[in-house]
Design goal:
The protein is an alpha+beta fold. The chain folds into three domains: 1-83; 85-137; 140-197, Head domain of nucleotide exchange factor GrpE (Nucleotide Exchange Factor Grpe, Chain A, domain 2, Roll). It has six helices and six strands; from the N terminus they run H-H-H-H-H-H-E-E-E-E-E-E. The strands form two sheets. The protein has a three-stranded antiparallel β-sheet. A three-stranded mixed β-sheet has the order 2-6-3, with no helix packed on it. Strand 4 (178-180) and strand 5 form a beta hairpin. Helix 4 runs antiparallel to helix 6 (114-136). The longest helix has 57 residues, at 27-83.
């Protein structure tokens, strides 16, 4: 033992003077208890770290789920706003069809007749106005004539032999098709070219 350690040892010995002898003899047991306590503290600390990691993970999952739910709700609200007129638009399309047939059925002789000219112009103006209102609400006609058959937008009703057109090309439109925004409102009913026999 060095001379340096002697004053410290003397100070410790002085403090231990009043402690009973049987208590000073607990050296090995005290060391074991201290080691056990240190192990228990380390285990408890590790357990708390694991619990904290699980809680952080659960919080992240809950935040992600909340964000997904918010996005779904925003999409549902947008869809409801964009497509609210779908049922009404389908019903009005039958009016459009009848109006279109009326305009197509007007013979040239009536178009030239001065007595009927006002009626013809009025029907055509009504048709243009209806188309304008459709456009304002995102309802647009599906392109069909001369286009390749698209089963997502066209419904083939008949095949028509044609030497001029490629097979599968729309050569006749029996009923116009319509889209509302990016959704099909009604498919176009069409006749499709096929190779002549």
């Amino acid at each position: 033992m060095s001379d340096k350690d002697k004053p410290q040892d003397d100070a410790v010995a002085e403090e231990l003077k009043g402690v009973p002898e049987h208590m000073l003899d607990l050296g090995e047991e005290a060391k074991e208890l201290a080691d056990d306590d240190a192990g228990s503290v380390a285990d408890a600390l590790e357990s708390l770290k694991n619990d904290l990691a699980e809680a952080e993970q659960a919080t992240l999952y809950a935040k992600a789920e909340t964000q997904n739910l918010r996005r779904r709700m925003e999409k549902d609200i947008t869809d409801a706003r964009n497509y609210a007129a779908t049922g009404f638009a389908r019903d009005v399309l039958s009016v459009w069809d009848k109006l279109s047939r009326a305009v197509e059925a007007i013979p040239d002789s009536l178009r030239e007749d001065e007595k009927m000219k006002g009626l013809v112009v009025g029907i055509e103006a009504t048709q243009r106005e209806l188309e304008k209102v459709f456009k304002q609400h995102g309802i647009e006609r599906v392109a069909a004539m001369g286009m390749p058959l698209d089963p997502n937008q066209h419904q083939a009703m008949i095949e028509i032999p044609s030497a001029d057109q490629e097979p599968g090309t729309v050569v006749q439109e029996m009923q116009s098709g319509w889209m509302i925004k990016d959704r099909l409102l009604r498919p176009a009913m069409v006749g499709v070219a096929k190779k002549p026999e």
